[in-house]
Write a structure and sequence with these properties.
about 325 residues, alpha/beta, Arc Repressor Mutant, subunit A, D-Maltodextrin-Binding Protein, domain 2, 3 domains, seven-stranded mixed beta sheet, two-stranded antiparallel ribbon, 10 helices, LysR-type_TF_proteobact-type
């Protein structure tokens, strides 16, 4: 029995919930995958999976084995990767997909830096507000804002997306600032029309332990988050902006955060990619490059201390009479 192959097949079957999926992942036949796992069970004298016609799940012994071998396989995989690096070049086509809202304000500066460093990589970037299926669309790496993708790929969370109500100092000087969610109806507000659905996005707030949604009438409505940010910066209205658009402007004083006791999170910015064990060096290099620069990057969100300061009571603002 090839123990390494059998253990690798077992680990992939556990991760994918399917021996057939593990076989495809390993480039072997389903019969070979099933035989490898059965031989491993025979060698260990324990059953590793509960099997039904529709489902594959780990037994208690299988879970213990998985917990034990995963770190060792990771070390082995890393060692083999290092051995190959001297023979591989970071070169070739690299296809990346991402929503338009993350394009210029978040991702593009890092894409430029990567391209300048690895000039033998042909970077093909597709900005699309529809969720990209990596296999169907033949992409190597995807980015997503909001809830992480479910199934079929590895997803790594990079930074949280906070939804922050903001206004420019000029707007507040002219119109005052709302102190409650209800007072928003007395103000000009911006709106974001979702490109993938055509619907006006609701504003969401944390009230106690609950998340509540409000339809806020829009005095100006756009289908681009960067344009909405510009509208708020220009004093055209109050907007609820993603922290990746707002955080830098808040720190510089160009935007003032409002109703901070109601800030909520709309998922995270996530990088996701396929499970392929034969993943090319250029793809691995790009993933490591982006994770190193973006994971926990405070340019894109307010940390807990900033949120606490922003929630401190303010002096009542004087509204200039017209």
């Amino acid at each position: 029995m090839n123990e390494i192959r059998a253990i690798t097949t077992f680990v992939r079957a556990a991760a994918l919930g399917s021996l057939r999926g593990a076989a495809v992942d390993q480039g072997i036949s389903p019969q070979a995958a099933s035989h490898a796992v059965m031989q491993l069970e025979k060698e260990l004298g324990v059953r590793l999976f509960h099997r039904t016609t529709r489902k594959l799940s780990l037994t208690e012994e299988g879970q213990r084995l998985l917990d034990s071998v995963e770190p060792a396989l990771a070390v082995l995989s890393s060692a083999l990767d290092e051995a190959r690096r001297s023979k591989e070049d970071v070169a070739g086509m690299l296809r990346v997909s991402a929503p338009r809202s993350l394009g210029l304000p978040v991702l593009w500066p890092y894409f430029e830096e990567f391209q300048q460093r690895y000039q033998n990589v042909q970077l093909e970037v597709q900005f699309d507000d529809q969720f990209t299926d990596l296999v169907t669309d033949r992409s190597d790496v995807g980015f997503r804002g909001g809830p992480p993708p479910s199934g079929g790929s590895i997803a790594r969370r990079l930074v949280p997306i906070q939804l922050i109500v903001c206004a420019s100092p000029d707007y507040i000087e002219r119109n005052g600032a709302p102190r409650t969610i209800e007072e928003l109806s007395e103000h000009r507000c911006t709106g974001y029309r979702r490109a993938n659905t055509g619907k006006l996005a609701q504003w969401q707030f944390r009230v106690g332990d609950e998340i509540v949604y409000r339809d806020v009438p829009a005095a100006i409505c756009v289908n681009d988050t960067e344009l909405e940010t510009q509208a708020v910066l220009s004093g055209l209205g109050i907007g609820q902006l993603g922290s990746f658009n707002a955080a830098t402007h808040i720190r510089s004083g160009r935007l003032v955060p409002l109703l901070m006791q109601h800030v909520t999170e709309y998922g995270t910015i996530t990088i996701y990619y396929k499970h392929r064990t034969e993943q090319s060096l250029r793809v691995k290099t790009f993933i490591d490059f982006m994770v190193e620069r973006m994971a926990g990057n405070r340019n894109f969100f307010l940390d807990s201390s900033e949120l606490r300061v922003a929630q401190l009571p303010e002096k009542k603002r004087v509204v200039r009479r017209r």
